[in-house]
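thoughts on both lines:
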Amino acid sequence: MPFFLTPEQKQATFWWLLWLAFAALLYLLGPVLTPFIAAAILAYVLNGPVDRLCRLRIRRWPVPRALAVLLVMLLFAALFGALALTVVPVLDKEIPLLVAQLPAFLVKLDALLSPRLAQLGIHVRLDGGGIKDLLTQQVAGGGDALWGQLLAGARIGGSALLGWAATLALVPVVLFYLLLDWHALLAQVQGAIPRRWVGATTGMAREVDALLGQYLRGQLLVMFVLAVYYSAALAGAGFDVALPVGILTGLLVFIPYLGFGLGLALALIAAVLQFNGLTGLAYVAVIYGAGQVLEGFFLTPRLVGERIGMNPLAVIFALLAFGQLFGFAGVLLALPASAVLMVAFRHLRRHYLRSTFYNA
């Protein structure tokens, strides 16, 4: 077959195969690329503030880009530090109290559930003594296997922990150099595009950039509304830690499940410590259940979906589809990736409507 190709076709085939090989190499190096992808996403978000800072002039001298990058990264790290300082005091206060009150809570739980479990033929005590006996029996029955599993889990967990530590240490370094050379890197990418496609590709990139900017603004608005909602709702229910827990839950909503799960766990701990019986747990169930409905069916479809031109049903479908295909990372990137696909689909639809296949 190659013998029947023209020189131009042979050249095009060579470059397409080379790009496919490069894409396959990137796929195989996926775990290694994690810090670079994370740093690239952060660089895209933080490049705007860096450019604005570089345009400032101090006594007629522009701010050096390296200094602007360093200042923006320090401010970003300070925001994360402030978020951590919001959580750590709450945990430091609540966990010792929880440990102290856990035996009494288990006695109440045993009195509530044991009779119902006994009716189903399940005879187990849920107080501290019963749980201790159950653990002792499990350890005595399969001691060797249990220790083997624990040691294997420790080895795997230790390797994973070292991998995460290396990734976290590498991300700031990669982020600094990406922000420092951001425009030069974009120029190199643009220079690598075949000249006959450079106009269309650049136009699509501008559309994607505009959509992602609208997505980020919509997501920030969702975070603010949810932070206000959770703080006000928990304060109205009488929680002492309403403000830090509510703010944390709202600000971490951009990470699906993690922000909601951490806020829910802190609220449940506060409910156990502060309220008698199941009253506090009922408050938490109602507040966080309503918050999930508010976020999933109103705020995200309306404030994020409409800003990027997506129907609310399309937003819900995108979250479910990307989560099914790519797991947690897919849920995290579902809406930005959908915005990119929408731009490509619009251009593809335009070509389809102009084609002889459609108009014949």
User: Anything to note?
Assistant: Residues 194-360 form one domain. The radius of gyration is 27 Å. The first helix runs from residue 7 to 28. The chain has a mean pLDDT of 76.
